[in-house]
Amino acid sequence: MAEKSNGIRFTSLFRPTEVICRTEQTDRDVILLNLLRLLGYQRRLGDVDEAYRAVLNREKEMSTVVAPGIAMPHARLDTIENMVVGIVTSQNGIIYDKNRPDKLIKLIILTLVPKNAPGAYLQAISSLAKICQDPATADIVASLPIQEKVWSFFEQREMVICDHLKASDILKSVKAQLQEHDTLEKGHQ
After folding, report:
1. How many domains does the chain have?
2. I need a surface site. Which of 79, 155, 162, 176 has the fewest CB within 10 A?
3. Domain holding 12: CATH number?
4. Does residue 83 sit within a domain?
């Protein structure tokens, strides 16, 4: 993996051939299965059906929509040794949550991490936090016509996944703040 400063470049985790551009499919589960099949072939994930179940089970626990138009589904797998990323874009939008069909997703960043590296997903989110703050990101990436342009979008932003991660690395992008006498209930609103 390509090293930069004290981490690895985000774009070292996927290749342009692991991007599905402008999918016409609108069903989240079909899209995730197609992406996992692609990654299974390209990265030898092992049992793709097991990886698919792991990703869907994680989605059942909590939706992984991280910003307007952006979802970052993920799973921890025994069958991989390094983090693997796959990307899907959609110009028309993907129905990611059937209970909220009006909230369409245009960019899916699937992250698979080794089971023995539980912090790896948080590191990936930390590196993506800055681009997720820009509400135009999903539309910009979804408009890119070819896989290489999607890869270049992330490459040009020089995102680095740090070797180590502190809570402040993730919380820098959190806008909500609690005061001394606030309760967690108030802070969660």
Report:
1. 1
2. 176
3. 3.40.930.10
4. yes
Helix or strand run (H / E) with residue 60: helix 48-61
In eight-state DSSP terms, residue 27 is B
Residue bearing tokens 């069958």: 79
2 falls in which pLDDT band (50, 70, 90)? very low
Give Cβ neighbours of residue 183 (< 8 Å, ≥ 6 apart): none
Single pTM value for the model = 0.82
Beta strands in the chain (DSSP E): 3-4, 7-9, 19-20, 65-67, 70-71, 74-77, 84-95, 104-114, 160-162
Separation CA 53–CA 93 (nearest Å): 23
Amino acid at 169: D
